[in-house]
Amino acid sequence: MPLPKYNFDEPVGKYARRDVTVLEQGMTVGEALEQIRREGIGEKIIYFYVVDEARRLVGVLATRRLLTAQLSDKLREIMVRRVAAIPENATLLDACEQFVMMRLLAYPVVDAEKRVVGVVDVSLFTDQVFKLTEHKGAEGEPDDIFEAIGFHLAQARNRSLLKVYQARFPWLLATLASGMLCAVLAGCYEATLHKFIILGLFLALVLALGESVSVQSMTVTIHALRRQQPSWRWFWGALRREAASALLLGLSCSVIVGLVVWAWKQEPLPALALALSIAASQVAACVFGLSIPALMHALKWDPKIASGPVTLAVADVATVLIYFVTAGLLLR
Q: Which residues lie closer than 8 Å to 80 by C-beta, 6 or more apart?
């Protein structure tokens, strides 16, 4: 699946198709369909773009939504207002990265006034990417398209070993920093650890549980970000679901560990401290596992590389802090 020989520093506007179909937001669905029948459509229509009276981009309509809406519905009522666009002076490399990060099949190309001047779709990079889904059938995973583009993007960059090191090592510094900070926090509670040895014995377990929950939440979040644009509504809905799951998991694990410690050492307060800290740290780890990849995605950083070390680092520090603060309050 060879990549066409493009100059990735050229403006994407040079490669945009001009057969883009734009519809005015004041139209009804019936009027829009009449215009499409009258004027025809371009070679490959994936989305219809909606403009205002000044021809500025204000929304987007998927073909399915347009065809299934009532004929009397206004386009402004059924269009999606959050629309990702590519400036015409952006480079081809910028466009390629946006395809990989946001995973849409096409983007409008706009000028400085947000007027639509063209459209680019994934066939810009290789017509063969569509064959990936054709071979899988109608239920096939479209992610293969973007993985292929991402693979070719890496080839286009021709990154050396040094560049790979520069891209990955800074994120590992987060792990180093969190490890040292956790050691400092443990040192602050040295007297508590000396008095209650059981806390030191279970520290590794508490950290492992927090990391496991944060990785699970992070994986679910990255997978979700491949399929939709993040929004505050999506974030709060996902946070409620993940936090509820983490609370149930935390309570289950805390009950098991608390009972084991109580039966083993016959010390109810350390058992209670362990149980409470496990439940609280798992909820916190879940929040970080959701929030950090979403933030990375919003900043257009690669969440697959950056999120792992940062999420685990923050989760570790939060877990140790919750663990020792809880122990310090209960075991005075």
A: 59, 60, 61, 62
